[in-house]
Structure formats: structure tokens, C-alpha cells
Amino acid sequence: MKIAKTLSSYQLKIVALIFMLIDHIHTYLHVGPGWISAITRFVAPLFLFFIVEGFMHTSNRKRYFLRTLGFAMLTLMGNVAINIVFHNVDYLTGEMDFYSLIAGNNILLTYAIFLLILKCLEEFKEQANFFRFGWLIVGILLSMMTIPFCEGALQLLPLLYIFYFCYGNKRRIIFGVLIYSFMWLVKAISNYLAYGMGVGLLPTLSYNCEFMMSLVCLAIISYDGTKGKKGVLGKWSFYVIYPVHIWLLRILSLL
Fold first, then answer.
1. What is the pTM of this model?
2. Is the per-residue pLDDT at 234 higher than 70?
3. What are the pLDDT digits (tens) for 6-25?
4. I want to staple 36 with a disulfide (CB 3.0 to 4.6 A). Which of 26, 120, 151, 167 is the partner?
5. CA–CA separation, 1 and 32 (whole Å)
6. CB within 8 A of 184, min separation 6: which ones?
7. Distance between CA 208 and CA 211 in Å, rounded?
8. Which residues are paired to 199 by β-bridges?
9. Which one-letter DSSP state was computed for residue 2?
């Protein structure tokens, strides 16, 4: 069945926003069955797809980066404040450490650093002098740095490269995403065969559900390449909704 290209970036972001709220309500408040995490796994990849789109289309990449970084820092400060007020501690040591202090979702920080990586890749591609390799080295270092410190970086970093290097070619993007997702499926089934004693295949796949990032392909296919008309939720509203709903859900979960 052929999917019509009828959805704008704004409409797809609304869909992703709704599924993000469902996923975080499930994560923080344990509402709903475990497979919810699987059907919402496309959200972060879809927002990443539009991060690359925005980077390639924006007239001011510096302002785009600073906006994303600014809200990432705002989210981080709110998370730290909540963890201090509720004295969030490490479960093993019973003490507050660096990771318990910054605990909480902050995908915006991941996206902000990814924008820096994209900048490095663009400079490496466009410059013709020896210093272009400096940009490549910085990009590699930033890529390595995101994995231990940024939410979802391990899963999303390869997708960043797929979206960038295959930019403008949906077939290549979808092929890359499907191959990458299949690798995660193989890993999930291998974990089930090796360690799944007493646990069914469905619960295992619901937990190790990174392979469901492949659902982002449906959104990419339906994307018509336009921004679309922004309704009540403008571009700033997406940045505001993210930290506010994270803070509210964290407070409710800690209470």
C-alpha cells in the first residue's frame, strides 16, 4: 500500500509530541502495559530527523543551535533543582552523586551536541585546506562524548549519520534505518536466547525495543517536505512543553 506524502513537519511533530507524552507518562508513572515503550520508540528518531532538516534549511545555524542549547540548559537546571529538593540519591550507595544530581530526561542536550557534530561535518566537507581535518577530529570527539553523558546518544548517533549522509534521499534513509533497526532486533533476540530464562519473548522485546525505531520510516515516507501551518503550538511551544512536562512527571514520580 502506497502512503501519500500528505503530512508536514509541523503535523508530524504534533504526532511525535503526543506519543512522547504517552511514553513519558508510562515511564515515570508506570501507566499502561510494557509494550507502550515499543510503539513510542520512533519519537526521538523523528525529532532527530527534523533536527537535521532544520540544520540544513535554517538561515541561521548559530541561532538554531543556541536556541536548542538554551532550552537544554533550562531543562538541566530544572532537573537539578528537583533532584536537590527531593534529595534524589544513588540506589546503590544511598548518596547523592553527579548522576543522581542530573537525573531526568534531557534529549534537547543530545540534539544540541548533535548540531555541533553536524557543523563539524559541514566544515570538513566544505573546506579544502588542511584544517578541515581538525573539524573532523572535533566531530569524532563530540560523538564519543555524547555516548556516556547524553540521553539516547548510543542509539541515536548512527541515525544522525544516516540522516545527514543520506539527506534528500528517502530511499537511502529508510534502507539505512531498517538495516540499523534489524541489528537491534538481532541483539534483542540474542539476549532473549541467552538470558531470557522464565521471561517470554514479548516482554523481552518490549524492554529491548530499540529495533522499533524502524517505525520512523512510516513518518518519513508520509513527510511532504513542507513546514506546514503552525497552529496553537508554534516552534517555541515545542521547546517549552518538553521541560515543563518532564519536570511535572518527575515531581509526581518522586512524590
1. 0.91
2. no
3. 889 999 999 999 999 999 99
4. 26
5. 31
6. 155, 208, 210, 211, 213
7. 8
8. none
9. P
Q: Determine the 3-state secondary structure of 4 from DSSP.
A: coil
Chain centre to alpha carbon of residue 155: 8
**71-85, 188-202, 216-230, range with greatest mean pLDDT:** 71-85
Q: How far apart are CA 67 and CA 45, in angstroms?
A: 20
**Cell numbers given for 75:** 531543562
d(CA 240, CA 252): 19
Identify the residue whose cell numbers are 513542507.
226
Between the two ends of the chain, the Cα-to-Cα distance in Å is 47
Round to whole Å and give the CA distance between 52 and 220.
Answer: 13
Q: What confidence tier does 1 reach under pLDDT thresholds 50, 70, 90?
A: very low
The amino acid that residue 21 corresponds to is L
What are 145's three cell numbers?
562524548
Which grid coordinates are listed for 245? 512536562
DSSP 7: B
In terms of residues, how long is the chain? Answer: 255
Q: How many CB atoms lie within 10 A of CB 216?
A: 26
Alpha-carbon distance values, 165 to 13, 124, 139, 178, 214 (Å): 22, 13, 14, 16, 18
Task: Quote the cell numbers at residue 217.
Answer: 520510516
DSSP string, 173-232: HHHHHHHHHHHHHHHHHHHHHHH-TT--HHHHHHHS-GGGGGGHHHHHHHB-S------S
Question: Using an 8 Å Cβ cutoff, are 65 and 119 in contact?
Answer: yes
For the segment 221-230, the average pLDDT, to the nearest whole number, is 86
- Matching residue, cell 528517502: 170
